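Hello,

Following up on my earlier ticket. Below are the two sequence lines again, exactly as submitted.
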Amino acid sequence: MNEAATPWQKARRLLVTVGPGALWLTVFVLVPSLLILLASLLSRSSTGSLAPPWGLHNYVRFFTEPLFWEIVGRSLWIGWWATVLTVLMGYPLAFYIAAHRYKQVLLLLVVIPFFTNFLIRVYAWIILLQREGAVNAVITAFGLPPADLFPSTFAVYLATVYTFLPFLVLPLYAAVERIDWSQLEAAYDLGATPVRGFWEAIFPQTLPGLFAGFLLTFIPAVGTFVIADLLGGGKITLIGNLIQQQFTSAQNWAFGAAVSMILMVMVLLGLWLYARTQGERGLDELV
Amino acid sequence: MPVKRLLAAYSWLVFAFLYLPIAVIVVLSFNESRFGVNWTGFSLKWYEALLENRRIGEYLGNTLVVAFTSTLVSTVLGTLLAMGIVRYRFRLRSFLRYLLYVPVVVPDVVMGISLLLLFDTVRDGIGWPRLSLFTIILAHISFQIAYVTLVVRARLMLLDPALEEAARDLGADNWRTFWEVTLPLTWPGVVSGALLAFSLSLDDFVVTFFTSGSGSTTLPLYIYGKVKTGITPEIHALSTLMVGATILILALGALFWRRR
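Thanks for your patience. The regenerated structure is below:
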C-alpha cells in the first residue's frame, strides 16, 4: 500500500476495486434478502402475488398448523440421516485418498461426479431404481420379484448422499492432509491400542474438517427441493418443496417468503453454532 | 495390514457408488433399445436424434451464452473485489465479507425466489426486466461473484506484498504494478475462480428455474421437464456428452494447475 495516498486516492482505489462488486452484492444479494423479509409480512392478492394488509399472519399460519411442523421435522430428519450416511461413506474415503500415491487423481475422481450436471446425476438414479431399471434387472435376474425402489424415501436418501458426498470429502480430506501423525506414535509409545490411538490422537484432529463437511452437506440436504421432487415422486414434501410450491403451483408468494425466512434463520443458526465451536477462522475454512 | 486392505476395499466401493449411475447412463446412450435397460445392441441413433433436434441446439446455445457472459462479468468483478478486500481496510469491510458468504450458504431455493422477487418488484415499478436469458445471467453472476472472490482472495493472501512494493520502488505506477506484477501472480486463482464460476453456471438448475421466462430454456431446465414428463434415450446421449465435456474441462484445469 502506498503510504502517501491522499484520502481522495484511497477512495478512488476502493471505488475501482471494491465498488462494482459491492454494488452488485448490494443490489442482487442484500436487497433481495430484504425483499423476502418484506414479502413475508404481506398477504396474497387475488392474482397470487403480493398485496397488503401487512402482518405476521404468514408466520402464525406456519407455526400453528401441524402440517408445517411435520415438513420441517421431515426435512431435518432426512437431512440429518442423509448427512450421517454421507459421513460413514466419506470419512474412511478421505483417509484412503490422503494416504494414496496418486491422491491428486483420486481427488479428481471424487470431483468429477460433483461437476457432472446435478440433474443428470438425479436422473441417473431414476434409471437405476425405476421398476424396469438397472437394479431391478439384476434382482429379477436372480429370480426375485422386482422391488419398488422409485419413487421412495429410500431413493431420496440415496440421491442426497450421492449428490453431497464430495461436499463432505473435500474439507475432510484437507483436514486429514494436515494430521500430525507423530501424535499417534506418541499414543502408541504410551501403550494405547490402535482403536484408542485413533480415537484420541487422530479423530480430534479431523474434527474441524468433519464439522465443515457436515455443515456443507447438511445445509443443502435440508434445503434442496429437486431431489425430493424427482425421486420422491412428488409425495415427499420438504421445506424446499414447500417454498417452491408457494412460488409456482400454490401461487402464495407471501407465505413462500415467510417459509424462506424460516429456512434462512435455520441456516444462520447452524452457521452460528459452527462459528461458536470453530471460531471466526472456521467460516473461512468452510469455503 | 488387514485394516489397510479393508479401507481400500471400502473406498473403491464408494468410488463404484459414485460412478455407477454415470456409467449406466453412458452405456444406455449407446443402447439400441428405446425402453428399459435391456441391451439390444450398439447404436448411435440417439446421438443422431440429438443432432437433429433443433430445440436442443437452441437450449445448448442458451446455456452457453449464460455461462460465458456470467463467468466473464463475475470473474472481473470478483477479482477486483478480492483485491480490494485483501489490500484495503475500510468501513463495512467485515459486513461485505459476511455478505459474500450469503450466496454460498443460503439454499438455492431461497436465492432463486429472492431474485424472482427482485425482478418482479422492479418490473412492477418500471416495466422491465422481463424474465429472460438476461435475468438468468444477472442471477448467475450474483452467486458466481461470491465464489470467484473467495477463490481469488485465497490466492492473494498467499502473495508476498513485498513484490508489489519492489515494483513501485522501481518506478512502476499503480496500473503497471497491477498489470505486470499483481495480475500475473494472481492468475492461477483467477483461472480457477472462472472455471468454478463457469461450471456452477452450467450446472445450475434451481436459481435458473425461478429466474427464467418463456424462450429462455437452458439444458438443465429441459432435462427437468423431460424427467417430469417422460424420458427419451436422447437424454442419455445428451447427458453422456455433457459428462464428457465436464471431464474435458476438469482435465484441462488439472493440466493448467500442474504446469504452475
